[in-house]
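Q: Here's a chain of 77 amino acids. Please give me its 3D structure as tokens.
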Amino acid sequence: MTLDELKPGQCATITGITGDGPLVQRLMTMGLIEGHEIVITRRALGGDPLEVDLMGYSLSLRKNEARHVAVSLLGYP
């Protein structure tokens, strides 16, 4: 499952970032690191961008960026 598939209010753990190059480094620099918990707080009309809560701060991501972040819903394998 990827971050762009979550609905507002859902909590997940980041399990990895797919892809390579500058986008992956940029996402990791913003705090999207394996093992951290993340919550979708809201989506703009049309679903893009989406806002997440990560390590106590809010971060907005485009859907195409969120597709590179693999997650596992909390409470599920």
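Q: Can you summarize the key feature?
A: Residues 1-35+61-77 form a domain with the SH3 type barrels. fold (CATH 2.30.30.90).
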